[in-house]
Amino acid sequence: TILSTGGSAALSGDNTLIAAGTNKLKVKAFSLTTISTTAMTCIFKSGVAGAELWRVLIQAPSGASAGANLSVAAPDYLFATASATLLNLNLSSANAVHWSVSYYDEA
Q1: Chain-centre distance of CA 40, in angstroms?
Q2: Where are the beta strands (DSSP E) in the chain?
Q3: pLDDT tens-digit series, residues 46-71
Q4: How many other C-beta atoms lie within 10 A of the C-beta of residue 50?
């Protein structure tokens, strides 16, 4: 079953996106957007202070929004957490990022 969720993160450092599943959280799609004119590194991680899974740099021009999105068809996936581990988004600065993630929980 493919699940989707989204929200906003604005804390520098780790921001929990999805609580730990029973298996691996396999991300098949993500979207990140911001209006921040400050360059920001957004790193998806497996767990709190965990291993880096995917890195994106975003910065919006003044008066506009910017972002990144990527998707693959299931059963393929872009990246996966370790088993029974949450998905984290680590931000290099305290600027708002709106996010969406589609994923499934599978061994």
Answers
A1: 13
A2: 3-9, 13-18, 24-34, 40-46, 51-58, 66-71, 79-80, 87-91, 97-106
A3: 999 899 999 999 999 999 999 999 99
A4: 17
Do 102 and 2 form a contact (C-beta atoms < 8 A)?
yes
Q: State both tokens at 70.
A: 């990527």
Residue bearing tokens 């730990």: 20
Quickly list DSSP for 10-27.
Answer: --SEEEEEE---SSEEEE
Position of tokens 């450092």? Answer: 13
The Cα 36–Cα 58 span in angstroms is 9
CB environment 2-23: b (16+ within 10 A), e (fewer): eeeeeeebeeeebbebbebbeb
Give residue-wise pLDDT tens across range 16-44. Answer: 999 999 999 999 999 999 999 999 999 99
Distant-in-sequence, close-in-space partners of 20: CB < 8 Å, separation ≥ 6: 81, 84, 85, 86
How many Å apart are CA 22 and CA 95, to the nearest integer?
31
Report residue 71 CA to chain centroid gap.
12
